[in-house]
Amino acid sequence: MTTTVTTTGTHFAYTSRKQSGKVVHGRMEAPNEAAVVSRLRTMGMSPVTIEQTAASSGLSMDIKIPGFERRVPLKDIAVMSRQLSTMIGAGLSLLRALTILTDQTENKRLASVLDEVRTDVERGSSLSEAVAKHDRVFPPMMIHLIRAGELGGFLDKSLESVAGTFEADVKLRATIKSALTYPVIVLCMAVIATIAMLVFIVPVFQNMFASLGGTLPLPTLILINVSHNMIWILPLLIVAAIAGLFWWRRNGHKDTVRAVVDPLRLKIPVFGMLMRKVAVARFTRNFATMTGAGVPILQSLDIVGQTSGNYVIEQALKRVQDSVRAGRSIAEPLVREPVFPSMVTQMIAVGEDSGSMETMLNKIADFYDDEVQATTEALTSLIEPIMIAVIGIIIGGMIVALYMPMFTIYSQIH
Question: Which letter, b or e, does each residue of 169-203 get, where b requires 16 or more Cβ atoms within 10 Å of its Cβ?
Answer without folding.
Answer: bbebeebbeebbeebeebeeebeeeeeebbeeebe
